[in-house]
Amino acid sequence: MNNLNTFEVENNFKYNFNNKYKKEVQNLLIHHNDIFNQKYEELNDSWKSEIDHQIGRYIIQMKIFETIKNENIQGEILEFGTWQGQNLIFLVNLRNEILNDDYKVTGIDCFKGLPYEEDGWKEGQFKNTSKKKVLNNLKSKINNIKNVEVVEGYFIDKHVYEYTQQIENVSYVYFDSDLKTSTLESLNLVKKFFEKQKKIFIGFDDWGCKNYTLLSAFGKFIHTFSNISFKIIGKTDYTIFFEVINHNLT
After folding, report:
1. For 38-59, b where at least 16 C-beta lie within 10 A, e where not — what string?
2. Which element (helix H / strand E) includes 12?
3. pLDDT, tens digit, 9 for 90 and up, residues 81-126
4. Which of 48, 52, 128, 197 is the most exposed place for a label (fewest CB within 10 A)?
């Protein structure tokens, strides 16, 4: 894990306007890519945090994928909560650049917005999307979308459960579920991988954005395990990433 040491705990990307991956990230964005062309002093803190969020999560996930390759960690790449497909675009691009298209990438979303109101999130928020929109966004940014799937459904739907349970292994899972209940639902869908695999990586979007809803859900979830460690390996203003090790298998 030496190649991830510089990403541990500390946020290395705050207001980093001149990061060498700035142009690469900008070209992959489906929203707000114009802010990357503005002068630093013209941006308010909110837009600076947006730059941090996009560049930061891209680079941290890049380092995770490099570790997956270097350590030959096998397994699919999952995303719970895809909205219009921005991070899914990041994931597929990084898979193509660092791994190969044998690593299947799947985004799962109901495409109907949030099912209820909670901690500042509004019912129906993020409903301005569809499976078709996500696929079109992917095709507009990524040349190779082989072995990429978008699954439509709530995390409690039978077909979503069956889809996730037929997966043998995962290497990385990204959670953008927003709500506490939805986050717990998605975590429970991948619980078996924490128990059967020596090492995987996970990431959370919107960590700490809304009264620490996700922190509460995650805390409740990890208390169900013994001898499994969750080490913070990176974070931005809006995201956090963990290396998960099952010490029963080491």
Report:
1. eeeeebeeebbbbbbbbbbbbb
2. none
3. 998 999 999 999 999 999 999 999 999 998 887 666 666 667 766 6
4. 128
Ranges of H-type helices in the chain: 22-28, 45-70, 86-98, 131-141, 158-165, 180-189, 191-196, 213-222
Say if strands 228-235 and 239-246 run parallel, antiparallel, or are unpaired. Answer: antiparallel
Give me the helices (H) in 9-130, please: 22-28, 45-70, 86-98
Domain that holds residue 233: 2-246
Contact 108, 79 (CB under 8 A): yes
d(Cα 205, Cα 126) in Å, to the nearest integer?
A: 14
The two three-digit tokens of residue 165, written as one number? 């349970």
- Alpha carbon 87 to its chain's center: 6
Q: Which helix (H) or strand (E) holds 234?
A: strand 228-235
Give the three-state DSSP class for 115: coil
Q: Which two tokens stand for residue 111?
A: 């495409």
The total domain count for the chain is 1
Query: Which residue from 175, 174, 180, 176 is spatially nearest to 119, judged by alpha carbons?
Result: 180
Residue 241, token pair as written in the block: 């990433």
The first and second tokens of residue 171, run together, are 């290497």
Q: 84 with 125: CB under 8 angstroms?
A: no
Q: Do the strands 228-235 and 199-205 form a parallel or antiparallel pair, or are they unpaired?
A: unpaired
What is the domain-level CATH number for residue 92?
Answer: 3.40.50.150
